[in-house]
């Protein structure tokens, strides 16, 4: 039954995790552990960088922004997933779905841009080291961070506004575990042509542009590292970039698969898996990847723990 979205109480029934009722307690425990791990990991990274003056550099400034975005990403999705798992109805209201969509898409878009900015930062640091402090000064970093958040929010508002124009049945069944653009478009009861066109355009100008810039940056970075004669300096440069490259690979793989492919094909099961990679797995893995592979962060964490946990004589 079609109708005005504002005149009827629209609900979305999320069946993404309902196909195995006997596994609901396990799903709840896994999602809860993942959420706590993501929150703690990213909060620790943020605290360590903020409290250690030696880490007050552009790279770590952007890492703080990445941690905050990861917290936003998981908080937009997982708490509602936990509520739906425990609920018998397993539904989310139209307004709740739109709020979740807006916050999640905003964080996802901003993180996509931020990873590109971080790649460019590494390019300047390794390929133009003598001009690094001049190019990546405090003002530039703040402006880049502000642009990242604003562009992410604007992209989210654009997609959310277009979905608000669509008509939905009063009761909709979504084969997913949280509100995201592709599954919402699949259940809409009005023409989604404009939405799909805008998604493709956004993917091209935002996703592909960021991807190409990142690839170009790392191509120059790798070439520059290979020219370094000192084995120790070469190892340090590779170690610094390997963490970021790992995060980029995980994140871009999931995002490109989920948002580019649906325009030509639809596979709900694959969508759920890939969404879990960048919405749930990536925010948990990011702190681990950046901390375990980074001696500066580990040393700063040790000093923070010693200062706060070990009693002073």
Automatic annotation (TrEMBL):
Residues 41-290 form the G-protein coupled receptors family 1 profile domain. It comes from the Eukaryota. GO terms for molecular function: G protein-coupled receptor activity; olfactory receptor activity. The keyword Transmembrane applies. Coiled coil: none annotated. One of its GO terms (cellular component) is plasma membrane. It is a multi-pass membrane protein. This is Olfactory receptor. The lineage of its organism: Eukaryota, Metazoa, Chordata, Craniata, Vertebrata.
């Amino acid at each position: 039954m079609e109708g005005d979205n504002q005149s009827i109480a629209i609900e979305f029934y999320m069946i993404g995790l309902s196909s195995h009722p006997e596994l609901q307690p396990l799903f709840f425990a896994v999602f809860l552990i993942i959420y706590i791990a993501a929150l703690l990991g990213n909060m620790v990274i943020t605290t360590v960088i903020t409290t250690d003056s030696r880490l007050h550099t552009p790279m770590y400034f952007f890492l703080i922004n990445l941690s905050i975005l990861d917290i936003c990403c998981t908080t937009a999705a997982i708490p509602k997933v936990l509520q739906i798992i425990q609920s018998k109805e397993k539904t989310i209201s139209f307004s709740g779905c739109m709020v979740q969509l807006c916050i999640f898409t905003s964080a996802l878009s901003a993180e996509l841009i931020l990873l590109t900015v971080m790649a460019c930062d590494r390019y300047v640091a390794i390929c133009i080291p003598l001009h690094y402090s001049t190019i990546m000064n405090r003002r530039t970093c703040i402006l880049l961070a502000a642009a990242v958040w604003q562009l992410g929010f604007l992209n989210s508002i654009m997609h959310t506004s277009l979905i608000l124009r669509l008509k939905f049945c009063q009761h909709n069944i979504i084969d997913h575990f949280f509100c995201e653009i592709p599954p919402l478009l699949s259940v809409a009861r009005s023409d989604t042509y404009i939405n799909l066109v805008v998604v493709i355009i956004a993917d091209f100008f935002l996703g592909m542009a960021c991807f190409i810039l990142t690839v170009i940056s790392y191509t120059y970075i790798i070439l520059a590292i290979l020219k370094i004669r000192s084995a120790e300096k070469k190892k340090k440069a590779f170690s610094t970039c390997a963490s970021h490259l790992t995060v980029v690979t995980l994140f871009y793989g999931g995002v490109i698969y989920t948002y580019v492919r649906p325009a030509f094909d639809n596979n709900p099961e694959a969508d759920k898996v890939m969404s879990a990679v960048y919405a749930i797995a990536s925010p948990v893995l990011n702190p681990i990847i950046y901390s375990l592979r980074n001696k500066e962060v580990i040393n700063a964490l040790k000093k923070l723990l010693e200062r706060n946990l070990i009693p002073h004589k």
